[in-house]
Structures are given as C-alpha cells and as structure tokens.
Design a protein that fits this description.
binds zinc ion; 7 helices; Arc Repressor Mutant, subunit A; 2 strands; about 5% strand; single chain; globular
C-alpha cells in the first residue's frame, strides 16, 4: 500500500480498524455488529469494502483481522487520536471531553498535520488515554527514536 495521507477512511471505518487493532485474534462479523450496534448486513458490506482496500483479511470460519497494512493504518489512527486529544487537554479540556471532541473530527486531520503537531509537542510518549508510539509512520519521530 502507498504511504497514505491519513484521510482515506471515514470515521466509522477508522473506529473498526482501531477496535480490531486492540484484538489479537480474528473477530467475528456478528461480534463487530453488536459491538458497534449496527445491522449484520451493514457490517458485512463495510467489512468487504475494507477487505477490498486491503486493510483487513478474512480468516475462514473465524471472522476478520487486520492485514499488515491495516495494522499500520490503525496504529496511525490511534496515534492521531492521542496526539489531538493531548493537544486539546493542553488547552484546557478535561481528559474525557478532549477524547470525545477528538472522536468527532480526527478522521479529517492529515498525517502531515499530525507529524508537525507531534514534532511541535516534542514527541510526547504518554497521551491522556494511552501511550503514544512513534513509529515509522512519522518520519520526524523515527529520527527522534533512533
Ligand atoms: Zn482518547
Ligand atoms: Zn512524534
């Protein structure tokens, strides 16, 4: 997959990827449907779209899991959430409020912007809702980590 600009997926699909990233095993479509409160037929359609784009793979009889590209993308999405939430918390929002505000717009913030903000914040390691990893997806961070 080409290095993407971070704007490829709508918020809902980002949430699916982040959820799958937190699970080490394959997840059944029905479990996803009930977790996100959507109709099984709706989730099947979404899952097929994500599989066609290469973010997830079907595991026969076990459901779906992230592909390597999907894992990378999910890692970026998690980092994006945590950087933005940390930024809002820094400007006076409560942790809870910062997370929920960010959840509404995070899918619209590009990889470029996140890289710059991360750099300006000094590559923070700890977000308000989890650790922030500085991985190969962020060239600036990679230099820092070396
Ligand atoms: Zn959060
Ligand atoms: Zn960084």
């Amino acid at each position: 997959m080409e290095m993407n600009d971070g704007l490829e997926l709508p918020a809902k699909k980002v949430e699916y990827l982040k959820y799958l990233f937190g699970r080490n095993t394959a997840v059944k479509t029905n479990d996803l449907a009930s977790r996100f409160g959507v109709d099984p037929s709706t989730i099947t359609k979404t899952i097929n779209e994500l599989a066609e784009s290469g973010y997830i793979t079907h595991v026969p009889y076990h459901g779906v899991r992230l592909s390597e590209d999907g894992k990378q993308y999910a890692e970026f999405c998690i980092k994006r959430h945590r950087i933005l939430a940390l930024m809002l918390a820094h400007y006076g929002l409560s942790d809870e409020r910062a997370c929920s505000e960010v959840s509404r717009f995070e899918g619209l913030v590009s990889r470029y912007a996140i890289d710059r903000i991360c750099h300006a914040m000094g590559h923070p390691r700890q977000g308000i809702c989890g650790k922030i990893t500085h991985d190969s997806l962020c060239p600036e961070c990679e230099v820092q980590d070396a």
